[in-house]
């Protein structure tokens, strides 16, 4: 968590349920233990008080947003690992919102090679 020009390490008060592939993700722990109960942000998709910064912009962008007053606080989370993603897929579940930032991004488009 970045606040008042300093980074702070947050640790969950409650252990995450290791049997729940979604509940054990950092993004879920942040939502259930801080965003919803303390900040009152129930739906990260629609709440106007929360925004997301893509991983490629890095923590310097988070610091800039907070230091400039654009944001009050910023959270930087560990990226979701492939094993975590596979566990969610194997459970026929859907990843939480904004938890699937992957790099490098695959190029989109159509390529035609003349033979």
Question: Would you mind describing this structure in some detail?
Answer:
- The chain is globular, with a radius of gyration of 17 Å.
- The protein has a two-stranded antiparallel ribbon.
- The longest helix has 10 residues, at 26-35.
- The chain has helices spanning 26-35, 58-67, 82-90; strands at residues 2-3, 6-7.
- The protein has one domain.
- The protein is mainly alpha-helical and 115 residues long.
- A hairpin with a 2-residue loop joins strand 1 and strand 2.
- The N and C termini lie far apart (54 Å).
Approximate strand percentage? under 5%
The radius of gyration over CA amounts to 17 Å
What's the story with the biggest beta sheet? 2 strands, antiparallel
Question: How would you write the strand order of the largest sheet?
Answer: 1-2
Poorly predicted runs of 5 or more residues: none
Q: Count all strands and give the number.
A: 2
The helicity comes to 25-40%
Q: How far apart lie the N and C ends?
A: 54 Å
Specify the overall morphology. Answer: globular
Number of alpha- plus pi-helical segments = 3
Helix and strand string, N-terminal first? EEHHH
Return the domain count: 1
Broad structural category: mainly alpha
Q: What's the average pLDDT?
A: 88
């Amino acid at each position: 968590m970045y606040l008042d020009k300093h980074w702070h390490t947050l640790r969950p008060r409650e252990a995450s349920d290791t049997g729940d592939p979604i509940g054990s993700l950092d993004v879920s722990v942040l939502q259930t233990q801080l965003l919803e109960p303390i900040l009152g942000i129930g739906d990260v998709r629609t709440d106007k008080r929360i925004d997301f910064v893509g991983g490629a912009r890095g923590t310097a962008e988070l610091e800039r947003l907070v230091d400039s007053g654009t944001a009050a606080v910023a959270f930087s989370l560990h990226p979701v690992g492939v094993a975590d993603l596979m566990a969610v897929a194997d459970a026929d579940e859907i990843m939480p919102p904004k938890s699937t930032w992957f790099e490098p991004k695959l190029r989109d488009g159509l390529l035609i090679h003349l033979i």
